[in-house]
Amino acid sequence: MNRIVRRILVPLTALLVGFLPGVMAVQQAEAVTKMTHSQAASIFRAAGITWSSTGNCSDWNVSTCTSFTNINDTTVYGARTLKQASGCALNITGGTEVGHASGTYSHRNGYKVDFSLYTCIGNYIRGNFTRIADRGDGAAQWRSGAGNIYALESNHWDVTYFNCGGC
Q1: With contact defined as beta carbons under 8 Å apart, do 88 and 128 qualify?
Q2: DSSP state for residue 24 in the 8-state scheme
Q3: Which helix (H) or strand (E) holds 159?
Q4: Rounded to an integer, what distance in angstroms lies between the CA atom of residue 165 and that of residue 80?
Q5: In this predicted model, what pLDDT tens digit does every residue of 70-96 receive, in sequence order?
Q6: Is residue 101 exposed (0-12), middle (13-18) or buried (19+ Cβ within 10 Å)?
Q7: Is pTM, for the whole model, over 0.70?
């Protein structure tokens, strides 16, 4: 319900306030909604997205697991949007588990997932997104039309979801 209110009333209020002289409306940033591992796994499963880990586990406190604990809903829905738009197989090899680099837009904070290097998804990213400057570590990067960042690391795609990509 809060999402509906934010998506309808905030822009409507901004529009109406825009007609009043001397008043400026400021759009609020949307709050991040966290999911449990099982909630995210259910959405991924329904979308046909697979996941794997070297440890064959999902404990977010073990680096060899692939966990979705506290993942952002925009990350989950962004991956689903990529799967639907591309028609490619997607396999997640990294989620919110320990062992990734820290930072605001990090795996642990729910903004990132890693995907296996499949030819289909690589071709889709390179063919549909905009090539941007390499990341500080030298990883080649592409930006989607929605603003999400796809970085090609040595053995996987490291993806940062700022939003769900039009879900």
Answers
A1: no
A2: -
A3: strand 157-160
A4: 9
A5: 999 999 999 999 999 999 999 999 999
A6: exposed
A7: yes
